[in-house]
Specification:
Shape: globular
Mean pLDDT: 88
Number of domains: 2
Largest sheet: 5 strands, mixed
Distance between the termini: 29 Å
Number of strands: 5
């Protein structure tokens, strides 16, 4: 199966290396995020080379984008052009900052312009220095590195043979990053439920590889969105928070205030029809609010989990990276945790292990997990 995957290009390898540097410098990092599928418009640029996130002590999220250009020939992109280009992408994606990595030389004028636009520009030599400091012996662990890039391409090829797997892969590599975090969480839980239904001990090798990767990526991104949601609890009391979560989870693509107005109009129409038909008062009362969306069955545990995350914000802000690393090492790569990496990430701290167990318990309650996934995150040996 691996032999069918093309060898990564020089540019692919550099992208994977820069994403890996970002991860070990403290960011939740991904590469190759497709946003053309989300905007559904013909765009000259189809994906973000790098997309990363981190959280402040109050769990407010910050977004970063990056572009990587490895070409050095006469036709290679020029630093100034790419800085201006990246600045536009920063505005389009709502990112807080951007970083350009380019093999071509960067003039002093380009460096000055980049700083004014909230873009940092670096050479390949700069990446190598950062790799030495931040990555060292931790290359190709978790979801990061060139080997992780090769595995992702393998999963992409496997997924192309099945429309459901391909849809799941494309969602995790594109649309999910641009959804409201409540809607993203709901769709990720639904995806994990569907993966759980497909998981059996008799899977073919290719499908098992794909499902392990899809489950790990979905749970990792769910955790990222849960922490993002938890930040909204900082300014609310518990009763207000519960009500807020119920309303937000009941929403679909249409905001609840519009759905409530539509529901009121439907109630009036239905009441008139029932009155004309001579319906009993009980029947008229039962019909009130029938069109108003209901939150999913996991709404209360969702609110409880996010409340606990916000109540331990110092641990929660590191949770997406920690869970991402553990689920990839244990479920996808099926190996023991690298001791130096575990120490760097703090995954063995009591607070971190407790939050990971809370996430596992939540997805189990949603019927969105399977035995191998739970073992990967809860067993220490």
């Amino acid at each position: 199966m691996q032999s069918a995957t093309k060898a990564p290009s020089t540019g692919d390898r550099l992208e994977a290396r820069v994403a890996q540097v970002w991860f070990w410098e403290g960011f939740y990092a991904r590469r190759g995020v497709n946003f053309q599928r989300y905007y559904q418009e013909p765009l000259q640029v189809t994906d973000l080379d790098l997309f990363a996130f981190d959280f402040n002590p109050q769990l407010a999220i910050r977004r970063y984008i990056g572009e990587v250009k490895s070409g050095t020939g006469r036709s290679a992109p020029k630093a100034l052009d790419r800085i201006i280009w990246l600045s536009g992408l920063k505005s389009l994606t709502g990112a807080d900052a951007g970083e350009l990595t380019i093999a071509a030389s960067i003039s002093a004028k380009a460096q000055s312009l980049s700083r004014g636009l909230g873009i940092s520009a670096q050479s390949v030599e700069d990446v190598e220095r950062r790799e030495s400091d931040a990555v060292g012996p931790l290359a190709d662990l978790g979801s990061q590195g060139v080997n992780a890039f090769i595995l992702e391409q393998t999963v992409r090829l496997i997924a192309k043979k099945n429309i459901d797997l391909e849809r799941a892969f494309n969602f995790l590599r594109g649309e999910v990053y641009f959804l409201d975090p409540f809607l993203a969480a709901k769709q990720l839980i639904d995806l994990l439920r569907r993966i759980t239904l497909r998981w059996t001990p008799r899977l073919q090798d290719g499908e098992e590889i794909a499902l392990r990767w899809l489950a790990a990526e979905a749970l990792s991104l769910l955790t990222l969105n849960l922490v993002t949601v938890a930040s909204a609890a900082m300014a609310l009391d518990r009763k207000s928070w519960n009500a807020y979560v119920m309303e937000r989870l009941a929403e679909g693509a249409v905001p609840m205030r519009h759905m409530r107005a539509l529901s009121d109009s439907v109630d009036k129409f239905v009441a008139g029809v029932l009155s004309a038909a001579g319906a009993s008062p009980e029947m008229k009362t039962a019909a009130i609010g029938a069109f108003l969306p209901e939150p999913p069955d996991y709404a209360e545990p969702f609110a409880e989990l996010c409340w606990r995350l916000k109540s331990d914000a110092p641990a929660a802000r590191a949770l997406p990276r920690q869970l991402d690393f553990v689920v990839y090492e244990r479920l996808v790569h099926q190996r023991q945790i690298h001791e130096i990496a575990a120490a760097r990430l703090g995954v063995n701290r009591d607070s971190s292990m407790r939050l990971i167990r809370l996430v596992v318990g939540f997805v189990r309650g949603c019927e969105a997990s399977f035995v191998d996934l739970e073992r990967a995150l809860t067993e220490t040996s």
